[in-house]
Amino acid sequence: MSRILLVSPSEELEQRVHQATGGAFLPLRAAEVPADAGQLFAQLGGAPAPDVVVLDLRPDPAQAVALAGRLAQQCPQISVVLVGDQGPETALAALRAGVRDLLPAEAGPAEIKLALELAARSAAARASVAAAGSASSHTAAGRVISVVSPKGGVGKTTVAANLAVGLAQRFPSTVVLVDLDIQFGDVSSALDLEPEYFLVDTVRGAASTDSMVLKTVLTRHSTGLYVICAPDSPADADTITEGDVARLLQMLAAEFRYVVVDTAPGLSEHTLAALDQTTDLLLLTSMDVPGVRGMRKELDTLRKLELLPSSHHVVLNFADPRSLLTIADVEFTIGTGVDVQLPRSKAVPDSVDQGVPLLQSGRRDPMTKQLSALVDRFVGADGAAVPPGPEATGSYPTKKPKVPPRRAASRWRRTRTAVA
């Protein structure tokens, strides 16, 4: 049975639709036409998305036609029927917006019934085609890439945003970035976004169970990336549970090729819930003693919790050959190799302030080159996933670090003692 939604303030029209459907419809008494699909579905009280939406033109014809157009773009499987007297201009605009049928304001139950039956058949046909296409193109769930770090201030959001943008440039409309720093996440700032919906909206109501509704509350970035931004208020974080996080990531993985998760520093309950769904882990640290010590502890903890996937990548940010520590020091301390080194770059602060990731701007810089190399670790030349190399197994590096010669030897001993 098709799900039919009527959006109208008219009790009289509601009675006619009731007669046409035998009461098998959901009435939504709306004095104003919702602005978009997200606002419409938010008023359904958790009910699943409809197959057919009947919009009353009379309250605001222009707004009703605009909503019909947004439904056609955001939810192409839904058929829209407009009811109300239309002039030639309104009728033409409605057809261009993708409306399935137009009914006069005085249409009787029989006429309404026929229009709804045809609209339902059209919706069912499109849903069948979409399901067949999805089955042929998605043989497995998408990859969930979680970006974690033991401490803040290491550029985690910058790396996560660039990784997501880089993937989206290669696979448009198949990548989503989730800001899971639920209290103070700033992915929206990193991408210069002004979202209308936030993380809370994706785990409440119909969006929490219906992937079609979920897609309507995602924020679209200019690169083709979809984004779920952290709550606008830190107080909203208390309403999001670990179960919400797990369910959200499962739904996203079923719909997107890549799900990139920017987590909060440390191992909070929400981060652990994300790690349960993670297929690829990106561990980020800075090139300093506190960061390296924290990374060693985090790796040890994840191994004990059995939350360290075989496909994991250690990324060293702010790499600087003039640093007191060396790459060898870092690898010896954390017990595994460093897969990618991101150098210090004057381009990064400007990029962050402008809200334009380096991989989006294409600015020529050593940092941009290394970020591209990081993206390459998740896709091959033909677009296939890159299997984890020996450096991703978590084994102790077999090649011992070189001991610096002569006068640097005392500095080497002091550094090794400090890090250990």
TrEMBL record:
SUPFAM superfamilies in the cross-refs: CheY-like, P-loop containing nucleoside triphosphate hydrolases
| GO molecular function term, any single one | ATP hydrolysis activity
State the UniProt keywords alphabetically. Answer: Phosphoprotein
GO BP terms: namely: negative regulation of cell division; phosphorelay signal transduction system
Which parts of the sequence belong to the Response regulatory domain?
Answer: 3-120
The record ties this protein, via InterPro entries, to:
AAA_dom (IPR025669), CheY-like_superfamily (IPR011006), GlnR_N (IPR049170), P-loop_NTPase (IPR027417), ParA/MinD_ATPase (IPR050625), Sig_transdc_resp-reg_receiver (IPR001789)
What Gene3D superfamilies has UniProt attached to this entry?
Answer: 3.40.50.2300, P-loop containing nucleotide triphosphate hydrolases
| Short name of one Pfam family | GlnR_1st
Recorded protein name is Pilus assembly protein CpaE
**Lineage of producing organism:** Bacteria, Bacillati, Actinomycetota, Actinomycetes, Propionibacteriales
